Structure formats: structure tokens, C-alpha cells
Amino acid sequence: MFINRKTELDQLSDLYHSERAELFVLYGRRRVGKTELLRAFCAEKAHIFFIATLSADSEQLATFSQQIWGFNHSETPAGFTFPSWEAAFRSLADLPSRPVVVLDEFTYLISGNKAIPSILQKVWDERLKNTRVMLILCGSYIGMMETEILGYQAPLYGRRTGSALLQPFGLPSSALFYSKYTPEEQFLAWAIVGGMPYYLTTFSDRQTLLANIRQHILDARSGSLYSEPRLLLMEELREPRNYFSLLRAIAQGNTRLNEIAQASGIGSAHTVARYLDILQQMRLITRRVPATESQPEKSKRGLYQIDDHFLRFWFRYVHPNQGSLDLGLADSVLAQRVQPDLDHFAAAAFEEAAREFVAAGARTGKWSFLPERIGSWWSHGAELDVLALNQTGKTGLVGECKWSVNPVGTNILEDLKHRAGAMAEESGIQHILYVLFSRKGFTDALKEQAAREEIGLFTVEDLVQNGE
């Protein structure tokens, strides 16, 4: 199932119709759907789609050579290969029409032959840039792609004509995978597996959410996602054990640097900070600071969170209970560990969906001001789930999110106003808009007050249907 990605397809199509030589770089985490996006783009276009592997450099060159030969010939001579990568790349200039050439898992090529970026740069400058070829380099190791391909000192720096970091789906697109679910169930599915297309397609809306969790995540024998995080980290990291400890510490609620260092037990805060930097480069965690901070990188109020919902779920419920799950006690773990805590777990994702709702509204002019920053805020025991700021105009939007089984009443609004006052005093904001997000709607009294004071009231259905 191929869903959405209209923005990325439009970007690729614009480059394709330029009729000039194009060098596009697409990168992003494993399972985010890069290959499916490129296959959808290449459909009905003359193309070469080469997927690199971890095999020897000579084998990679032979496979690529045969695909190039097969582009123009009905039969490829057995054993045909170009004498070098330079010769193979130069041959792309002779392809007819408007060829699209995809080098998928490009970082595997670099791992086997570190000279490839320099060779490609030489051939691009001497020959390919004057042709009509559209060359796409695609890779999953984000750090390597940003360093070896996009970095200032990389051989190919300045040659790319376009690039994109492919992001996981947000809630509205993720909900499209589950047409049979209610909006609340669609949200919960996204809160559990996140926006990675592979994880989304694992769950089925023909089953209940708990049945999906039991079958695909908690079943140690046949669960397709049971070992996924372990395989991901072992493939991409040299010391996965330490990163496991860090991710588990964050998943269990340790969000400050010193807390994470103490809970993980892998070393000092200085040592842990280096590991956390790697996880940030991989887009697995984020260091959040209050939206009022003008210099986020220097803020001492930073909190770490796991970005990927599924990793957050796995390190909260699977990793700590692996002994029980390996003994076949998935039903007990589901009933005693997951189900009683699931609403508490989903609350953080509800706040994220609300912030994206506010951001999407800003892009469409929904609000009466243009935000400069969107996030959350905390200070001295007071917190705001959602905060959008324009400090130049001294205007802010504050929001409260309640993933509760009860409708939100006027008491929640009054409390929000009180906490917003503390934020305004700290930041100098003078004009405040209020919005409330609720799982189960709002009391009649709050609806009446909201109508008088022009306060935004939004439900989980509004978040699910929010355009991306």
C-alpha cells in the first residue's frame, strides 16, 4: 500500500521535467519508505534501479554493470562488467532518452569502496552534468549521508540539485492505513507504531489494537516486530548494549541528562552525552527545550525523548519484560503491563499530535498570528503542553491536551490560564490565544465559555483529519 508522499513525489517530478542533469539525494531512517517512494516515482519511466548490498565491491560493480547493459539490450552477456566504477558511471552519459538512475543503499557502496563519492564527483563534473540523466542517491545511514554526501567537505558537495530527508508519517496520513478503525483507534495505532510505513502495515484494522500488539509485538516466537529494534540498533551501532540502556532509561521516564546517566549506569553525564548525540544524529531521540528559549543549544532545561513511537513502546513494554515474553507469557504481559498503562503511554503522543495540528494550522493561516516557534514549555513546576510563539509581536498560543475518559470542563481552562500567566511573565508575551484538545469532548459549560471567549476546542477526530 502506497499512501501520501505527494510533496516528495511533486519535488521529484519537478526535477524530472527540468530536462537538465539532476543529482538528487534522498535519505532517511530504515523502514521510512524511501525505496517504495522511488519505485512509485520510477513507475512508467525509463529507469535503472540498483540496490546496493553488503557484498564485495567487485560483485556490486558487476551487478550495476549488467543493469546498465540491460537498459539498452534485450540480453546481457554472461559475466559482463565494466572495468571500473568510473567506466560504469561514464556509461550513464550514453543512455538514451531521459533516464532515471537510482543508486539505493548508497552507503553500502561507500562502505565497500570509500573512493566512490570522489569517482562519481569526477565523472559528474566531466561528463554527467551536461547530459539529461537524473541520478538519485538514496541511503539509510543518516549520519553517513549527511557527512559523506551532503557535508561541506564531501566530494559531492555542491553537486546535488535537490535533496530530502524523508520523515515518518504524521497522524493524518498514518490514520489512512486503518479505515475500519474509529478516530480514537487510529490515533492509538499511530501512538504505538508511529509513522514508519513498514510498522503501520504490520497492524491490521481487522483486529483489535490489543490483538495486534499481542500478535505482532509481544509474541517472541512469531511477532514480526518483536526483535525489530534490536536488529535496527545492532546493524547501525558499534556498541548497541549501551544504547539499549540509554533508550530504556528514557522510555522509563528519565529525561534529563543526569537522570539518564544514573539510570543507564554506563558512565558519567559527559560520556552519556556523546552517546545521546549519536542517537540524535540517527533521528531516534530529540533534545527538547521550552519554546521560549532563544538559544536552545545553550539551554539548561533540555529534556530527552524517544522520537520513534514504536521504539518508545518497545523499550517501555518489551525490553523490560523480555524474560517473561521469551517464556511465552505474552498474554500476561499484555494484561498486566501494557493494557493498564496504555492511556498514560498515549498521552505523550496526543501532545505531539496537538503540536503538529497547531503547526499545520499555521501553514494554512488558521491562527491570527504567524508563529516563530512551536513546542511546549516548562518552568518551576508549571507546564504547557502546546506553545506557539511570536515574540516579536508578543503573541502566543497555549494549549492543554487531555487524553482522559472524561469530557474537559471549565476547570481545565482556568488552570491553563493560570499556567499561561507564568509563561507570559517569563517571556514577555502580552496576547494569548487558548486551545484545548480532548479525547472525549467538552462539557456544555466549557463550550459556552469557549464561544464567548473565542477559545479553540478540538477533539481527537480533528487531529486525525488534520491535513498534512
The largest sheet is: 5 strands, parallel
Low-confidence stretches: none
CATH superfamily of the largest domain, by name, is P-loop containing nucleotide triphosphate hydrolases
Enumerate the strands of the largest sheet in spatial order, edge to edge or round the barrel: 2-3-4-1-5
Radius of gyration: 25 Å
Q: Which structural category do the helix and sheet elements fall into?
A: alpha/beta
What overall geometry do the principal axes of the alpha carbons give?
Answer: globular
Classified by CATH, the class of the largest domain is: Alpha Beta
Count of beta strands: 12
Q: What is the terminal-to-terminal distance?
A: 19 Å
Beta-strand fraction estimate: 5-15%
CATH topology of the largest domain: the name is Rossmann fold
What does this structure look like?
It is a single chain. The chain has 468 residues and is an alpha/beta fold. It has three domains: 160 residues, P-loop containing nucleotide triphosphate hydrolases (Rossmann fold, 3-Layer(aba) Sandwich), CATH 3.40.50.300; 148 residues, Orthogonal Bundle (Arc Repressor Mutant, subunit A), CATH 1.10.10; 102 residues, Trna Endonuclease, Chain: A, domain 1 (3-Layer(aba) Sandwich), CATH 3.40.1350.10. It is 48% helix and 15% strand. It contains 22 helices and twelve strands. The strands form three sheets. It has a five-stranded parallel sheet, sandwiched between helices. The protein has a five-stranded mixed sheet with strand order 8-9-10-11-12, sandwiched between helices. A two-stranded antiparallel ribbon has the order 6-7. β11, α21 and β12 form a beta-alpha-beta unit. α4 packs parallel to α6, α9 packs across α19 and α11 packs across α18. The longest helix has 22 residues. The radius of gyration is 25 Å and the shape is globular. The two termini are 19 Å apart. 37% of the residues are buried.
